[in-house]
Amino acid sequence: MNNTAVKIQENQRQHSSTRPHVKRKRKLKIRFTLGEKLIFVSFLLFALYAAIHIVSNQVAIYQMNKEIQQLEETIQEQKKHNNDLYVEVQQLSTYERILQKAKELGLSLNENNVKVVQE
Fold first, then answer.
1. How far apart are CA 85 and CA 92, in angstroms?
2. How far, in Å, are 9, 17, 69, 113 from residue 4 at the CA level?
3. DSSP assignment of 29-76, as one string?
4. How far apart are CA 89 and CA 83, in angstroms?
5. What Å distances lie between residue 48 and 5, 40, 61, 95, CA to CA?
6. What is the pLDDT of residues 69-112, one digit of tens each?
7. pTM greater than 0.70
């Protein structure tokens, strides 16, 4: 009996020491087909092209706005210069100044030859 009891105990130890059979989960590898890869790469290339195109358009718009502002500034300076010249013409064309210049040049005022012109 000793022998049988020892065998039974050994069998119990072997069964208890072995781990229960655990199913291993395989990692599912996702593989893309050639068509899917081509679609993905073409989408990335299109997105890159669109991004570059948008940035280049924004740069062109920025440069155009800068030129417009410079032209507007030039126009304002020219308007100011024109206005200054207009004021100078108005000052130089006063009746008193014209009469003074005429006397300096030796001209005399003959009221019979003067005609009044109204605008």
1. 10
2. 9, 20, 106, 160
3. -----HHHHHHHHHHHHHHHHHHHHHHHHHHHHHHHHHHHHHHHHHHH
4. 10
5. 78, 12, 20, 73
6. 999 999 999 999 999 999 999 999 898 898 898 889 988 877 77
7. no
